[in-house]
Amino acid sequence: VLVPLKLDAFILNEECCNSDDFKIAPIVQPNYTFLRLDDHLLESDILDHVDLHASKPASLNARVTDLGSGKTRQNRLGVYVHWTLPPFYRTGAGAVEEAQKQDAEDKLKVPEDASVPEFRPVPNRWLVTRRLNPGSFVPTDANIPLFESWIVQSDAMRRLSVDPELEDMDLEAEVSPFVDSSMATKDGKIVDEIINSQAEVFVGKKVPFDEWIRDDADKEPNVDLNVMTSANPLLADYQPHNTNIFSIVDNFTFKNKDGKLDFLKEAEADYHVIGWHSEDDDDPMTTVGNIADEEIPTHRKRLEDCHVKLKDYNPKAPTDKKWGEHATTWLAEQGRSNARILCHASMYEVKWSTSKLPTNVLAREAGKMQKSLSFAIGTSPLDALVAYFQAHAIANDFVQGTKDDIQHLIHILGEAGDGDLDGLQAFSDEAYKLAFDKVDAGTAWFWKKQTDAGEHPTFATDDDIKDLDQLNMDQAALDNAQREADDLRWKLFAIWWTWVSSFAVGNLSDEYKTKLNGVLDRLDKVIGFQNVPKGRLDELKALRDSKKDIIKHSSGAASRFYQRKDPTVLFSRIGSGWEADFSDEVQVRLHDQVVKGDRSDEQGWEGYSALVKKLATKVADEVKSGAEASLTEFYELRTSRTVSAPPDPATQVLPFFHDTAKRDRFRDTQPWKPMFIEWEALYYHIPFELWHAEEYHSRNKYGALAVEYTVLEDVSKLFDPEKSTEKPDVIRIAGRNYLQPQAVSTFKTLVQQVFDNTNPDDLKTKFQITPNDKEHLLKLLAEMEFVSAPLPAITNSLRTVKEGSHLKPLVRLPHATPVAVKDAVFHFTELFDNNDVDKAASILQLIDDQGDVTPFASSIALELAHYPFKPVQHGHLEFIKLNIVDKFGQAIHVVDPSPPRFGQFHTTSPIISESLFVGTIDDGKGVRPNTALLQDDRNACPFIALPPSINQPARLNAVFVQKVQEGKDGPYQWRRTSDWDSPVWGWIVVNYAESGIQFFLEDGTFYREVRFGGKTGTVADFKYLPFDPPTKQDGTIITNEKTQLDHLIAKLSNNTYMTALWDMINTSFARESFHHAPTSYSNFSSAIVGKPLALVNAGWSLELANQPKENWTTTDITNDKLKPERTLLTDEPKKKWKDRQWEAMDPKDPKDLNAPEPARKGYTFPVKVGDDSRRYDGLVGYFLPSGEPLQASTSDLNLNELYTFKNFIGTAYEKDPRREISKANSPRHTPYWISPGDPSETLYRHDDKLKVLGLIMDPFLPVHAFSAILPHKALRLPQWTVERALKNMTAFWRVGPLITTQDVDKTFSVPRALDGDYADILRKYVTKKPIGQQLAAAAAAAAAAAPGAQPVPGAPAPQSTDEQDLPTVHFPLAPPVAAANGGGAKFVYMQPYLVNKGSGGAEENTRFNPYGIDGQAAQGGDALEAKLVPGPYTALEGYVQIARSLREEIAGA
To answer: What pTM was estimated for this model as a whole?
Structure first.
């Protein structure tokens, strides 16, 4: 199987080092001395940054000049040939997570490590062949063969102590230093001095073809080579680190007439590379072990597993090609196979010169481009991309058109569901989440509502609900304990690292022993905590496995934690280190599909044919035929061949990179393949009290307000030594990040998605985007060559930890037991009594897989005037170094690399997204960016803002709550509602017909109405009337319980309060952004009156995922006077958990406001609840809690003040209870963390952290919380709660006095009493006769029963009264015409009666009977002649009600 590789050729001569637009970086190899544990040599990263200070001219560049002698390093000049490994060698396969979990009871047991990804071995033998074009080289008489070949042994391990050849080698340019973790064998044994011996270990070997002997090479020491074998992550792709592993240097050496070594000055060469595995078991096409033939995958499956396919093969029409039938058969073959992988690559027409660069130098063009097109920086690649186009659109009409197209596409992407503006706003808020990393919070359990297909859903009993609550508490406790256990394991690593790497702690063993013992004790307790819920969860898992049919629970992801990402830099037109199709399926061929050509008159073919046979003798036997075919094809496809007959496509397939783009041609072009950036920046820490959460209109929010932190004061005064007496808090940060092309691929995917899923007519008419625009955009995005990289070193540095390639005390191999490095144990024993080696080793085993980042310890120079650890970032950042480095060591500097002048670092002004802009300030001289340092150019802004953000995962919790009494006589507390609890404590419906507000109970039962009028301006009707109130078990009517709804209704006795509430609701409904109820609401009868509002209690809290991070420099121990200015939690861990956080300041308390902000030490963050500028947010207003302890009958809320939005205050009144929601009065939250403890109290402990509000909200929309430090959090009412209430809710209003000719019953009818089930009146009292006959019969019966009444003219003969027939009244009232689907609704008249005259008041003794309404009266059925109907006449006054939900009427029909 011939696998194509991309081959690149780079020309390195002295002229390369003389450019101002790009530099040649000196070689900086991994320094494995930094892995040694003696003499505190340990470092966080074995790779130093490249140094561009002395890269020009060539005489000062250490890469091409020996600075000691001043001589040119001729062996380093030449053509560098590098081949890129395909993707399937770069992906690892790991075992499931459960396989790595150890038994908590056996804490020191170390299992086999199944979590380590296992990567495929890479080809370790490479045949590199060079062909010189005759007549192209100088000197022309040089005695150099036209063909020359070398064998590269990529896995050859070489030691200085045993390999004499290394003594005369250039160790920087001919081999690579290497750490071989495979020296720790899989049986757990460790080679002594594994680390100390690495300083003399190198890998890589190039041998002239004629000198290489295969059998001898197979016996030489070697390493198990894959892309991750070495501790160097750059090994596979950074050529200066992989010479003679995945690249070679061709110096064009030959012996001159004097027999001395000489070098060609000019030449044109073609290169061909083939690679194979020396061991069959390493080949992806082979099967290892005793596996039955029927279990061995087919060739097709093997290719699919490698993300590989046959080039030009069409499985639907395989016979279109002559080789298709054979390919089909081969793909289907199963069992052990002789098939093998053979990698191959070619590069033609490479022009070498000692004095000239190629005509096209892409690094030079990229360097010039960066001077004219600044890079962009944003919260995400997409954010930076939009900022880039917005900035360049201002001065470039072409880019303006592109920006408009992109904005149109974003509009389309945002139009989800109902579309329109609310969809766009929601989309922009979802895009905001891209600025945050999602952090797994564990598992949550849910009721298994739906069983197997075709079965009824299951319902939860009270016991089921209790079990589910306990299950979730167990799971939450386990997940929390697991998070803390991981933290503690890392702390063990950090203590070990600090002790063995830092000189500063050598005489502080007692302090570190105490610290170590504290961590071990806590880890032991946490593991114990895990056992309790883990045991119960294991029982559930066993039950699920054994009795799946009775399991009632399903698992899902718990609410995630989030952490703000570090900024992302995005570059344009700097190229990419990877081919655009690198991630696509690799297109391979079989060896009989290669190009064979017509050699009948080919000059020199016979000699080359013999060479091919010779070269093939040294490759593995299994790939010999493929090697011959590939070498033959290389010769056939050269551009200088004399015969150029095109290959027959029916029998031959061109190699993948021999395409129309001519990617296997050098084209006199020096490649530029940017791989990574190295940068340094200064972080200017701005005090938290200067940051203010502000709302502002953003171009990307579509009218919705953005909530962001900004500094309103002039921050330059803080860092100006002439204006500030304090030493500025400035931290120097450095990082290295790999460039990824995801910005382009992400947006190209979005573009394709739009065109695939949007109607072409809509694209053209609505958004003015044509199919041509698609091609334009895709082409432009490709041409702009966007690449991006995040900058995680910022947050890590503020947390006093560092990324890098470093030593870990445990060696972890796939499917092997992790083992402690001997020296790591030895140096750690100093912290144990009697230097106990076994105990030290067992403690190191507990570290497990932690240790990806290292503590600063004493390795970083710190300014001791300020505490180095920052739990929350809030400052400005300025780049002082930014270099882009490519795979061959070429570098572009975005920031001038020369040393600072007059104490000022060189810097640059990037394009900054709105989210990271520092803001502006008017300093009296005009408006300028509010930068930490004043700039000579007032408009320049080299600083980016890092607004307040917690430097560890956190989440904003939002839950509905209800007041619950703890025990029989215990206190009342706020507790979150379950899925089966309704959080609603009332409903509000505006009765416009009577200028009143109706209140309903949580289930939709009518409760009370308050109307304008009366002596005080408002009148409150009796509770429940016109319906019967609920009764106790003894039949006593319940009318005087003081509920939260009663407290609110009592406030409406104040006319101003009633008017304010009325105005707020009406104004919210009338606003431009009013969100209409969904279409489904029209199925309910209450839709005729208007949309209801829900009254609920909800709480929010700000929770940390882990214990607050801590300072990991040695300053805490070496300088105990240095204290943090603020902490996330209190520094008094002995207090009860309820007090283990900072309380938010009270804006009404003068002592809080006047206290110096730094003295408070804690962090509080405002959280804005609701937003009237977002059409999809449902908040209308809210009440704050009362501030008093919760009681059974007192108001839980402070009803004296009603907080709402400015736009919802149509008219302000004197003593208006409404308060405008603003940043000053927004609820403020302080973070909390609850350490693992008793699982049964987990949820309650969280509930006590909630800040509760009483909400008035739209039941069809969620209420959102906006914090500026985390993604927005939505809280939506359960659908069943809304539907149940709307089903029971009915519209009714007062009528009368109305004059009618027929009277109602004289006395109250108990069977027809209006109980709570008033929505079912017609169903209970009306027979199945047509409604007209029912009402007519009822009218006749009523008329006959009335004393002295005359028969109604035209009425049917009286019939006997049927208890199931509803009496009627003769009202001129037509049946209602409701909204959509409302034609089936019925009116019912409700007549009041006074019962039990002898006791109680009117509220207790007024009862109502229902009556049907004679529809004929509304149609003039009683006007048979022009005269009054005979009396007597009766004046009726009562209520008219829509007695049946429209949805039930429709369902019945």
So the answer is: 0.86
